[in-house]
Amino acid sequence: MSTSEPPTFYFIHGALHDVTCWATVRSSLSSHGFPTRAVDLPSSGGRAVTSHLEDMAFVRQELETLVRHEEKEVIVATSSYGGMVGSNAVSGLEAGTRRARGEKGGIVYFVFIAAYVVPLGKSLLDMTPEPPAILAPDPTDASRVIVVGPEQVFYNDVPAAVSAPWVARLRPQAVATFMSKMTATVEEGGVVPCTYVVCERDGAVPVRQQEGMFEAGREVSGAEWRLERIGTGHSPWLSDVEGLVALLEKVAGR
Predict the structure, then answer these.
(1) Predicted structure pTM score
(2) DSSP-assigned letters across all residues of 27-79
(3) Quick check: 80 and 115 in contact, CB under 8 A?
């Protein structure tokens, strides 16, 4: 990474959440000199979408602005479902690929935070033998799903008084985003180094599944993959901001 200017962190939230989940992490990184950006995915509570590729196109547009127009070096940091959206969005924007063409800026690193590493040609539902029991149809709209017991699924490591505002903010998720197939992945590109952060008390994505996705991604990629661990549930952006920021700064070379 360039030493003249710190990389920009670009955050992608998980299913049912919104951009505000990153606010405290972003504030901490900003106080340490790192620029940050974050996206609010259209599929979470907004208009109906037919594929995760609509989320990906939204992310891709923002990444192209950062990379091609502003020539920024970017670290993409993703949570949960955001991993597949971000992974599908980076092809051709990798810093190594751009340097080979004499261009500045690019994706210099990718971080999966208990996030889905979905292989090329597969969907998120392909990662499990049947739809997860933690999801249920939205009673007001069959094209969307809600989470069952979010206090234990997403926020099992914080007091109820802390999780309650976040439970209230959860939004239904377009079910189609779990069924569409990956058309590109960061690991198949084989250029961008990646870190997988295993959340060791996760109630949404089992630790063994997280470790398996790390191993599968590392096996496919020609770039370096590292495994880190944090002793939290699915949402370290809420329960251990200091620990998560330390891991992110480690990725950035601090």
Answers:
(1) 0.96
(2) HHHHHTT--EEEE--TTBTSS--S-HHHHHHHHHHHHHIIIIIS--EEEEEEE
(3) yes
